[in-house]
Amino acid sequence: MTTLRIFTFFSLLTFLINISALGQKQIPLNETNFIGSYSITISFHKTTHLIFPFNIIYVDLGSGNILAEKVGKVENILKVKAGSANFPQTNLTVLTSEGKYFSFLVSYVENPQQLSYIFNDELFSKKSISAEATHLEKHSPLNTSDANFSIANFENVRFSEAQLEMDARTILQNRKSGKQISSHNGGTMLTLHSLHVKENIFYLPVDITNSSNINYDIDFIRLYIRDRKIVKRTSYQEQEIQPLYVYNTAQQTINGKSAIQKVFVLEKFTIPDDKVLVIEMFEKKGGRQMFCKIKSKYINNATLFY
């Protein structure tokens, strides 16, 4: 190739590159293109909770030095903890079901001053929070340790904990007498008066009555599904049911000559005729155990609750 041809080739190449560059519009970045990041601190010895207005659908960790996962069946709360101490600053990204994007700069401190943050939004339903939380500003992360309100969104349940509590109160106040299922032992009685269904949720209101003079301290109450008939020397399996919410869970002592009420909130389910749902209650340091056995027919005839 002659010198003239080489010069012509590179001149044409330079011309084409310049034309291509001119055809590409350069758009400068400005403040409207930037998404701010929240600064949070976490520790190796303590767990931090991030509470979002909508269900979490995606989490990205900037490094393996931080650990993050959703809280059980609660879809809108992320717990975050340091995987190692004194790690360099990293980032965390969260996307929620309503298309909201949250960016965080995560730093390590030995003793964080803030352990719970709530990220409010204009679409965060006021039905999910109480009056104490109405002062929260849009997109403002705050420590809510002093706020007494419910902000959990449960898996497959579109009601907040506050709504579940309100429904439980309404059922206890307005329930009508129906077929009762009860178990008694030593002057105490566990009674299921009715079963209510609302969309994909069951409400089981129970009375715990102590007609004796000896206080009854609840050790635990568990719900599970098992075979209706148990043959001796034959193994059987239990399928434990974890309540979504328990109304009046704090009261664990039934004084003598008194009674308390609780409501167990469960995800809707059905069972075959050869199975039963069992509500089992054990006394702490005592022998007054009770078992309410609920057949499939009772469940299938649950009262509709609006």
TrEMBL record:
Source taxon at top rank: Bacteria
Protein name: Conjugative transposon protein TraN
Species in which this protein is naturally found: Rhodocytophaga aerolata
